[in-house]
Q: What sequence folds into this?
């Protein structure tokens, strides 16, 4: 069996080396964020800084407005996640559990929109926001982003609630629980894993979103998110390399950490979606 | 794609299962319906206002010449459509989008399937750690990755140039993102890297649905690795594979962030894809090819692209389904 062991060891080496090489651009950005401008150019492909220069982070945070971008991104992400979870869990629950008149129509409409290509309808939404006087506010970004994710979330919650044992609800109703109590005290607590899946999906999408905040903050630099801030910065001060790398780390680190902690829910959600 | 799942219709409503006997029960049922609508309303409002209405409204804009300020009043009939159909840049950007998809999708799928086969081995330790490594780019912002790649190229572009010059692969200095031949190639490479993880996870999920007994039976029958792959893995992956291909194609057709950040469609429209083309029409160019915002024209381009995409999706679904059914895959 030594031959098999050699093959296993070689597989591990190959996977580890290629896996770390795969992430090289991220390591390079992380290392470069701690370099001086001179080292940045002389170090070549070596991502390891000779000494750690934290000033890049201070400059990005204070002078390049990354503190503001960071807060905007947090607010947008939180707002989008909360709205999406409330809206889709409620909708998924009633679509799974009650046969109200018009249910078929609603389901059909929701399914049809899943097939339509997204993104090309931004212009009417832009116009709508302008008329609602919500243009150039974080609300417009939150609402538009949440509405983009409601269909997917509703489907996930509907599938989840359908699989929950019916007897639990019947027992609650016998005990005198009304519609809301059944939902809030029985069904919602049961759906913890699905709340995590939809919440994480929404958080990652909202955090990384580029097109929607780009369009809705065109005239207001102080509303930029991290991704838009980076984009604008490279257009305006494209020579401050190390500062941009610090900005990269500030933008990517929180969402990578969140993903690594909760990846079980994310990967299971993706896998479940494609298997259906 | 949750939609393709047949919705399991449990008999969910007790009130319907046993016919109502009293007025009290009927009232209770009506109350349940009422609250159902209330629970559903926020989702339906968001859907109707921000998803359904814009589809209809964007058709309305296509008949006007409008810069987006005030109300559209300059009715031009079908002029915008005529202009789009005759605009060579529209067709070029459509071509670039297809080229992008034609390279990204097959390369990604083959690599992802190969890696998924390696990681699916139950005896392989740390498989989920390796999966995380290769999946990680998916959770990073495409726009920020675009910035990092720009920095990388501007830092190492010259070193790569001098190496290639010495090896006589190229005979003059190359400006990687500024050269029409190389810019789209770089975007394709980064695109493959960025969304590779989705396909890896999809294939892993598909492989896990294949029962071990099948592999066991094949082994007992003396089937080799290739035969097992050809006669068990591939046929069993057919259904999931169709969904993976469709998702991958739809995803690549939405490409915007990477292009906008890396090249903004330049140089000289060499990397313009349809979504950046529409963006530049609607909100003005961000670089030298700045134009006056033309919402009507942008809406017409959006509409044409939307129709093309829907037609393409339908054809794709039909072709892939029938191929899978005839076991030609």
A:
């Amino acid at each position: 069996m030594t031959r098999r062991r050699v093959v296993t060891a070689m597989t591990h080496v190959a996977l580890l080396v290629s896996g770390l090489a795969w992430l090289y651009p991220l390591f390079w950005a992380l290392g470069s964020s701690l370099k001086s401008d001179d080292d940045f150019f002389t170090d070549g492909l070596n991502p390891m800084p000779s000494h750690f220069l934290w000033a890049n982070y201070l400059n990005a945070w204070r002078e390049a407005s990354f503190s503001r971008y960071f807060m905007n991104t947090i607010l947008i992400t939180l707002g989008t996640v909360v709205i999406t979870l409330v809206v889709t869990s409620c909708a998924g629950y009633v679509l799974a559990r009650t046969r109200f008149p018009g249910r078929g129509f609603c389901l059909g409409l929701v399914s049809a929109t899943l097939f339509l290509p997204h993104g090309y309808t931004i212009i009417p939404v832009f116009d709508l926001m302008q008329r609602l006087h919500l243009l150039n506010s974080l609300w417009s970004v939150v609402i538009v982003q949440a509405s983009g994710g409601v269909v997917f979330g509703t489907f996930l919650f509907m599938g989840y609630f359908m699989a929950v044992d019916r007897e639990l609800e019947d027992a609650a109703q016998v005990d005198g629980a009304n519609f809301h109590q059944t939902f809030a005290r029985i069904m919602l607590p049961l759906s913890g894993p699905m709340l995590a899946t939809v919440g994480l999906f929404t958080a990652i999408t909202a955090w990384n979103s580029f097109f929607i905040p780009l369009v809705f903050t065109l005239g207001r630099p102080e509303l930029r998110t991290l991704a838009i801030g980076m984009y604008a910065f490279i257009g305006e001060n494209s020579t401050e390399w190390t500062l941009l790398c610090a900005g990269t780390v500030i933008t990517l680190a929180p969402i990578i950490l969140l993903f690594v902690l909760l990846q079980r829910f994310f990967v299971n959600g993706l896998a479940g979606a494609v298997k259906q | 794609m949750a939609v393709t799942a047949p919705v399991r219709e449990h008999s969910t409503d007790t009130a319907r299962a046993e016919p109502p006997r009293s007025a009290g029960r009927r009232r209770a049922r009506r109350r349940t319906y009422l609250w159902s609508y209330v629970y559903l309303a926020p989702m339906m409002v968001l859907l109707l206002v921000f998803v359904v209405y814009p589809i209809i409204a964007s058709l309305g804009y296509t008949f006007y010449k409008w810069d987006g300020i005030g109300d559209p009043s300059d009715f031009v009939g079908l002029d915008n459509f005529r202009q789009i159909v005759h605009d060579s840049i529209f067709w070029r950007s459509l071509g670039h989008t297809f080229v992008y998809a034609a390279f990204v999708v097959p390369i990604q799928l083959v690599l992802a399937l190969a890696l998924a086969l390696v990681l699916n081995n139950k005896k392989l330790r740390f498989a989920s750690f390796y999966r995380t490594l290769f999946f990680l780019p998916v959770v990073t912002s495409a726009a920020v990755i675009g910035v990092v790649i720009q920095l990388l190229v501007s830092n190492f572009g010259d070193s790569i140039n001098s190496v290639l010059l010495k090896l006589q692969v190229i005979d003059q200095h190359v400006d990687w993102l500024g050269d029409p031949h190389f810019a789209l190639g770089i975007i394709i490479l980064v695109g493959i890297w960025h969304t590779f993880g989705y396909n890896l996870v999809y294939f892993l999920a598909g492989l896990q649905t294949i029962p071990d007994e099948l592999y066991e039976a094949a082994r007992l029958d003396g089937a080799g690795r290739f035969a097992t792959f050809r006669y068990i893995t591939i046929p069993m992956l057919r259904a999931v594979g169709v969904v993976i291909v469709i998702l991958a194609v739809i995803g690549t057709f939405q490409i915007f962030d990477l292009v906008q950040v890396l090249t903004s469609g330049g140089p000289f429209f060499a990397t313009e894809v349809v979504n950046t083309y529409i963006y530049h029409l609607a909100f003005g160019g961000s670089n030298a090819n700045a134009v006056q915002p033309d919402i009507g024209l942008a809406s017409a381009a959006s509409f044409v692209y939307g129709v093309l995409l829907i037609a393409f999706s339908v054809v794709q679904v039909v072709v892939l389904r029938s191929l899978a059914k005839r076991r030609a895959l």
User: Anything to note?
Assistant: DSSP finds twelve helices and two strands in chain B. Confidence is low (pLDDT under 50) at residues 1-18 of chain B. Residues 23-61 of chain B form the longest helix (39 residues).
